[in-house]
Write a structure and sequence with these properties.
By secondary structure, the protein is of the alpha/beta class. The chain has 2 domains: 32-477, Amino acid/polyamine transporter I (Up-down Bundle); 499-661, HUPs (Rossmann fold), CATH 3.40.50.620. The chain is 67% helix and 6% strand. It has helices at residues 10-19, 30-34, 38-51, 56-63, 71-95, 101-110, 112-142, 153-170, 172-200, 205-238, 248-251, 260-288, 299-311, 315-352, 370-387, 391-397, 400-419, 427-489, 524-536, 560-582, 598-612, 630-635, 639-649, and strands spanning 514-518, 543-551, 587-595, 616-625, 654-661. The chain has a 5-stranded parallel sheet, sandwiched between helices. Strand 1 (514-518), helix 19 (524-536) and strand 2 (543-551) form a beta-alpha-beta unit.
Length: 662
C-alpha cells in the first residue's frame, strides 16, 4: 500500500507545484524512471569535471608566471593524470558496482576510520564544488556587465544556489534534463574552437618547441633541477581543481541505469576523453595565442576572444563569442549539480553506518535525499559568505580533499587486488592500474598540501578534521543508544506466556475505548509502550491497534521488489504484537503503510482507524535520556511529538509515553 492522495489544501497544492507529485513506490518501473543513462550521467555527474577546465588550467598557467612556455609540460602532466585517475576509477566501478565511491571503498578495504576520513573529505569537497562552481560562474557572468553591478554578486550567487537546491528537490533526472541543452552548447562551442586554435598554429609548432627548449634551459640554469621541478609542481597543484569531479560517477552508481557497471564505465570514458581534451587543449592554446592576464576578464575570455576574432569578424563573431562565454558561465552553475547529487549520496552512505544523523538516509516523496540536498546547499552558502565569493581563495581550499579521497581509494584497491590475486584473473593489470593511480594521486596530494597549506589549505584540513571528529562522536552516541535499546529488547525474552487459546479470542467491540500504539517494528520499545498503557490505564482499553509506517530510505530503495519486501516484513513483525496481545485476552489488529514520510503515513493510518474505532487514543514511545544535549536532540528524530502535533490538529488525542534510556 502506498501513501494516500493528500487533501487539496493550499499547502499541499503549492507543494506539488513546487516539487512535483509523489512517486509510486510500488511501480515496477520506478527505478528505471529515476535512473540515468550514460549520456545523462556524463551531463549530470561529469559537468563538475568538464567545467573545471574553465578555472583549473587558468590557475596553473598563471602560476608559471614569466615561464608560460612551460605550460606544455603542465598540459601533458594534466592529461596524463586525468587518464590515469579515470582508468583507475573504472576499476573501482567494476569492483564496487553498487557505488559509494571513496567512502565505501575506503571503509570496505581500509577500515571504518579510513572510510570516515574519506567520506568526510568528499562531503567537504562537494560543498566546495558547489561554492566554487557558482562563484566562478558568477565571476564570468559579471565580467561582461558594467562595474556598477558588482555589488549584486553575493545576492546573485545565493539565488543560484537556492534555485539549484529547489530543482534537485524535484528530482535528479528532472534537473539533469533541464541542464542538458546548456551542456551541449558548451561542448559544441568549445571543442570546435579549440580544434581551430590548435590547427591554425600547427605550422608554428617548431617555433613553440624552440621557445620551450630555450626557456627550459634558461630556467634550469637559474634555479636548477629542484627549482624547475618545484615551479612545474606548483603550477600543476594550483590547477588541481581540474581533476575534481572525476570520482563523481563512482560515487553515484546507485543513480545509474542497469547494467550499472557498463553505464558507469561508459560515462567515465566520456568524461575522461572530453576533460583531457578540454584541459590540455586550453593550456596549449594559452601558449599558442600568448594569452596574458587582462583585468576584469578570465583567461578563457581572452583566449576565445582572440580565436573568434581570427575566425569571424563583425557582429557574427561577437554573437558567437557571447554564446561560448555564456555557455561557459551557465555550465559552471550546472557543475554545482555534481556536488548536490553526490554530496547527499555520501551523507546517505555515512548515515546508514551511523556516522551522520540517520535522517540523511531518508527520501522525500519524490525519492530525493532531501535532507542531504538542503544541507549541501546551506553549507555551500555558508562557505560562500565565509570566502566572500572569492574564486582565488576558494581554489586554494579546493582539490586537497579530493586527492585525499583519490589516494585512499587507490591504496584500498591495491590491497583488494593483492588479497584476491588467487581468484582474480586480471589482478596484475588491476594492481598496476591502481598502483600508478595511487602514485600519481598521492604525489599530487603531498604537493598540493605543501604549496597550498599556508595560503589557506589549512582551513580545508581543519574543517575536514572537525567533520571527522563529529562523525565519530555521532557514532559513539548512536552505539550508546543502541545498547540501551538492546536492553529494552531483552524484555521480549521474558514475556509472560499466552493465557488465552486462539479459539477463545475476544470479540471486537468497535465502540469500546481503543488504544492505537505507534511502533517501529517488533521490539522492546513497542512492548514497553503496550505494558505502560495497560499499567497506567488499568481495565480501560480492551482493543489494541498497532500501526507502523515503513519508511523507504536509501537502504531500501533499490526497486519495487525491495519496497514490497519492506511491507511484507513489517506486516510479519506487527503480527507478533497481535498474536501476543490476543493471547492475553484483548482484541488486537495491525495496520501498516509504506511511504517516505513517517508522519504522513502515521496520520493517515490513525485517520483510517478512527473510522472503524471512533473512541481511540494514540500512544507512542519516546526515548528519554538522563542528560539531554544538542547531540541527542539532533540525532533522535522527533517523530512522536511531530505525530502528536499533527493528530491533535486532526482532532485525535495522542499521548507520548517516556521510555527511560539508562
Amino acid at each position: 500500500m502506498t501513501a494516500p492522495m493528500e487533501n487539496d489544501s493550499l499547502y499541499r497544492r503549492m507543494k506539488r507545484v513546487l516539487f512535483g507529485a509523489p512517486r509510486d513506490l510500488f511501480d515496477p518501473k520506478i527505478f528505471h524512471n529515476v535512473s540515468l543513462i550514460a549520456f545523462f550521467a556524463w551531463v549530470g555527474l561529469g559537468a563538475d569535471g568538464i567545467t573545471s577546465s574553465c578555472y583549473g588550467p587558468e590557475e596553473a598557467y598563471l602560476a608559471l608566471g614569466q615561464h608560460s612556455v612551460l605550460a606544455i609540460f603542465v598540459a601533458v602532466m594534466t592529461v596524463a593524470t586525468i587518464l590515469i585517475v579515470s582508468g583507475s576509477y573504472s576499476q573501482i566501478i567494476e569492483a564496487f558496482p553498487s557505488g559509494g565511491g571513496g567512502y565505501i571503498v575506503a571503509s570496505k578495504l581500509l577500515g571504518e576510520k579510513a572510510g570516515v576520513v574519506s567520506g568526510s573529505a568528499l562531503v567537504i569537497d562537494y560543498i566546495l564544488t558547489i561554492t566554487m562552481s557558482v562563484a566562478a560562474g558568477t565571476d564570468a557572468f559579471f565580467s561582461i556587465l558594467p562595474p556598477q553591478y558588482l555589488h549584486l554578486k553575493l545576492g546573485f550567487v545565493t539565488l543560484v544556489i537556492v534555485t539549484l537546491v529547489w530543482m534537485n528537490l524535484r528530482g535528479i533526472k528532472e534537473s539533469v534534463a533541464v541542464f542538458t541543452p546548456i551542456f551541449m552548447v558548451f561542448m559544441l562551442g568549445h571543442i570546435p574552437l579549440l580544434l581551430y586554435a590548435m590547427g591554425r598554429h600547427v605550422a608554428e609548432l617548431p617555433i613553440v618547441a624552440s621557445a620551450v627548449s630555450r626557456d627550459f634551459h634558461t630556467t634550469l640554469g637559474q634555479v636548477g633541477w629542484v627549482g624547475l621541478a618545484a615551479l612545474l609542481l606548483r603550477a600543476f597543484s594550483m590547477g588541481g581543481g581540474t581533476f575534481t569531479g572525476i570520482e563523481a560517477v563512482s560515487n553515484s552508481m546507485q543513480t545509474l541505469r542497469e547494467p550499472r557497471v557498463h553505464t558507469g564505465k561508459k560515462a567515465m570514458l566520456y568524461m575522461a576523453v572530453s576533460l583531457s581534451f578540454l584541459a590540455g587543449g586550453i593550456l596549449l592554446s594559452y601558449l599558442l595565442y600568448k594569452v596574458g592576464h587582462v583585468p576584469g576578464k578570465t583567461l578563457n575570455a581572452v583566449l576565445f576572444g582572440k580565436v573568434v576574432g581570427d575566425l569571424w569578424q563583425g557582429s557574427g563573431g561577437k554573437i558567437l563569442l557571447a554564446i561560448v562565454l555564456g555557455s561557459e558561465t551557465a555550465l559552471l552553475f550546472v557543475a554545482a549539480q555534481t556536488g548536490i547529487i553526490d554530496g547527499p549520496q555520501v551523507l546517505s552512505n555515512m548515515a546508514l553506518d551511523y556516522y551522520v544523523p540517520r535522517r540523511f538516509a531518508h527520501l522525500s516523496e519524490r525519492l530525493v535525499r532531501n535532507y542531504g540536498v538542503v544541507f549541501m546547499g546551506g553549507m555551500a552558502l555558508l562557505m560562500l559568505y565565509i570566502s566572500g565569493g572569492s574564486v582565488q581563495y576558494l581554489v586554494i581550499m579546493y582539490s586537497i580533499n579530493v586527492f585525499l579521497t583519490f589516494s585512499l581509494s587507490q591504496f584500498g584497491m591495491i590491497l583488494h587486488w593483492w588479497k584476491d590475486r588467487k581468484t582474480e584473473a586480471k589482478w596484475k593489470f588491476g594492481i598496476a592500474m591502481n598502483g600508478v593511480g595511487f602514485l600519481v594521486t598521492g604525489t599530487v596530494l603531498c604537493v598540493t598540501v605543501f604549496f597550498k597549506f599556508r595560503a589557506g589549505g589549512w582551513v580545508t584540513l581543519l574543517i575536514t578534521g572537525l567533520f571527522v571528529s563529529g562523525s565519530f562522536a555521532i557514532r559513539r552516541h548512536y552505539r550508546s543508544a543502541q545498547e540501551s535499546m538492546r536492553r529494552l529488547d531483552e524484555l521480549l525474552l521474558t514475556l509472560p506466556p499466552v493465557t488465552v487459546p486462539a479459539a477463545q479470542e475476544p470479540m471486537v467491540r468497535r465502540q469500546a475505548p481503543t488504544a492505537v500504539i505507534m511502533v517501529s517494528g517488533y521490539n522492546g520499545l513497542g512492548m514497553h509502550v503496550f505494558f505502560s498503557v495497560v499499567k497506567q490505564f488499568p481495565g480501560m482499553f480492551r482493543n489494541f491497534i498497532f500501526i507502523s509506517a515503513g519508511v523507504v530510505d536509501t537502504s531500501v530503495f533499490k526497486g519495487a521488489a525491495e519496497v514490497e519486501n519492506l511491507a511484507h516484513n513489517l506486516r510479519e513483525q506487527l503480527g507478533k504484537y497481535v498474536e501476543f496481545v490476543k493471547g492475553h485476552g484483548y482484541y488486537a489488529e495491525a495496520r501498516t503503510l509504506v511511504g517516505t514520510d513517517a508522519i504522513e503515513s502515521i496520520t493517515h493510518l490513525a485517520e483510517e482507524v478512527v473510522k472503524d474505532f471512533p473512541n481511540i487514543c494514540v500512544f507512542a514511545g519516546k526515548l528519554v535520556f538522563r542528560e539531554e544535549n544538542l547531540l541527542s536532540r539532533l540525532l533522535h528524530n522527533q517523530t512522536a511529538f511531530m505525530a502528536q502535533k499533527r493528530l491533535v490538529f486532526a482532532g485525535l488525542p495522542m499521548i507520548v509515553m517516556p521510555i527511560r534510556v539508562l
